[in-house]
Automatic annotation (TrEMBL):
Residues 1-19 form the signal peptide. Keywords: Signal. It holds the Pfam family SnoaL_2. Residues 31-136 form the SnoaL-like domain. It comes from the Bacteria. This is Nuclear transport factor 2 family protein. InterPro entries: NTF2-like_dom_sf, SnoaL-like.
Amino acid sequence: MKRIYFVAVLILSGLPVWAQQGTDTKEVQIVKEFLHGVSTKNREITHRLLDENISWDQPGNNTLSGKKKTADEVFTMSGQMHKISQGTFQLKDYKVLGINGNQVICQLHFTAIRPEGAWLDIQNTDVYTVENGKIIQAQVFSADPSQEDYFWGRK
């Protein structure tokens, strides 16, 4: 009975879903908050949680692929994603798959549609490394690199 009461308190408390997991590590909480910011397009959250000198590895052979060495480069890439998709690029769902120390592995589901009809519906697996309350590294693994290359434009 106590467990049901606890869940009811969390639901009624108005806390965002990402903040309702009482057993999450600090690193998991940071990654969930970051992904919540991505899914709701909340720039304040995403800017606050990415380290200024993040190392971001974007897979594929497309116009957005490659290593990003600063938060500004990551946000420029994100802006290009929204421009190419005319604002339809969206993180639909995410879940934490596991943790190892300060690393958190997540599965993410993204969708987007370009005006001429090209579409993106992709599951990615990301590994985030957290230090001092910020994400310092992100390794993105695409389930379908050729779909992403086509959608974002091959190099």
